[in-house]
Write a structure and sequence with these properties.
It is a single chain. This protein is an all-alpha fold. It is built from six helices and two strands. The protein has a two-stranded antiparallel sheet. The chain is elongated, with a radius of gyration of 27 Å. It starts with a helix and ends in a 21-residue tail after the last helix. One of its GO terms (biological process) is positive regulation of DNA-templated transcription.
């Protein structure tokens, strides 16, 4: 099958198929007499595997490891489980980071009047070095003698 057919069958774009081939995740495609790439059902199955791993958030190195284990019939399932659970830990850490970012933005948005004034705590915070701004000082009262 040609790259368009492989793309449709696997759910992976032709551009990504070429990229995965370049990265060595799939073997170089055979070529037809006219020079077009020709893919087998095995190639399509491998592309589906890659797409599913990507859908689960695996990066290229993780996919490479999973593909090696998938191809190794003498593998131990404990290795696969370890990879999966390590990935779960990274995903959960990322979720905590995202939740923290969302909480910070929600707090900043709650502090913003959202009116016609130019003052905006969201922009003020983005302009800082990452440390929360100090609360405003209370106004100073002038002594009656100084008046």
């Amino acid at each position: 099958m040609n790259i368009g057919q492989a793309s449709k069958a696997s759910g992976v774009s032709a551009k990504m198929i070429r990229y995965y081939e370049q990265e060595g995740l799939i073997p170089p495609a055979a070529r037809s007499l006219s020079g077009y790439r020709a893919y087998t059902e095995q190639d399509v199955q491998r592309l589906r595997f890659i797409r599913r791993a990507r859908d689960l958030g695996f990066q290229m190195d993780g996919i490479r490891e999973l593909l090696a284990l998938w191809s190794d019939r003498s593998r131990h399932s404990s290795e696969v489980k370890r990879l999966a659970l390590d990935h779960v830990e990274r995903l959960e850490a990322r979720m905590r980071e995202l939740r923290s970012m969302a909480d910070t933005l929600r707090t900043l948005a709650d502090c913003c009047a959202g009116d016609d004034r130019p003052d905006c705590p969201i922009l003020a915070d983005l302009g800082q070095d990452g440390t929360p701004p100090a609360p405003p000082s209370p106004p100073r009262l002038r002594s009656p003698r100084a008046a």
